[in-house]
Design goal:
Elements lengths: L1 H7 L6 E3 L10 H8 L5 E3 L10 E8 L5 E8 L2 E9 L2 E9 L2 E8 L6 E7 L4 E2 L2 E2 L14 H12 L7 H7 L8 H12 L7
Parallel strand pairs: 1-2, 3-9, 3-10
Antiparallel strand pairs: 3-6, 4-5, 4-7, 7-8
Helix pairs in contact: 3-5
């Protein structure tokens, strides 16, 4: 009856599937012959269908022109790398299978940033943003406002609590201190640039 219905729509795939062979895998062709399905392909386990995955995409915002690199990482391994152009560039990674990933964003003269992305059955929209080195407030510029924020943090009057802002403030590496404030101030004055 099923094959007759398939014929009405152009024919069916001549495949037989047995979810349980009851320990008689070697005799399945004979059983199918009795049933009238010889000439077909036999599976004793469920045929696999190649998964297509979904798309992870969004906008990558940065503080300068040029290429932003976006890496999709699973269990410490980079599985996809794409780029986005300009201050606000679009990116798209296709064929991503379900799971939890790290999205690492990097660009010259910027502080790298990571996002956790959970992929299920639907496409994922994930906008990302990275700051210039020293751009604590993320406004796309390193200026006296950033120097003031770092000063207030070091004096204890207005502590920075965001981990990424602390990374942006740490322009000298090592522990965050007045040397970072001095370096930021020199950059703003133009006497010693952190980057060109």
């Amino acid at each position: 009856e099923g094959q007759a219905l398939c014929q009405r729509f152009g024919g069916g795939l001549q495949t037989a599937y047995t979810p349980d062979t009851f320990g008689q895998a070697s005799q399945m062709p004979q059983l199918y012959k009795l049933e009238g399905s010889m000439g077909t392909t036999y599976y004793t386990t469920e045929p696999t269908v190649e998964a297509q995955g979904v798309t992870v995409s969004g906008t990558a915002v940065s503080g300068a022109e040029g290429e932003t690199t976006i890496e999709l990482i699973a269990e410490g391994q980079v599985i996809a790398t794409v780029t986005a152009s300009g201050l606000e560039g679009a990116y798209s990674i296709e064929g991503v299978m379900p799971g939890t990933y790290t999205l690492k964003i990097s660009k010259a003269n910027h502080v790298a940033r990571e996002y956790t992305v959970t992929v299920e059955a639907e496409d994922v929209a994930q906008d990302v943003k990275i700051h210039l080195i020293g751009d604590i407030d993320g406004n796309g510029k390193v200026n006296t406002g950033d120097v003031a924020k770092l000063n207030a943090h070091l004096k204890g009057s207005n502590k920075l609590t965001d981990e990424y802002q602390l990374l942006c403030a740490n322009v000298n590496g090592g522990s965050l201190n007045m040397g970072d404030t001095a370096a930021l101030y020199s950059h703003v004055k133009g006497t010693k640039k952190l980057f060109s």
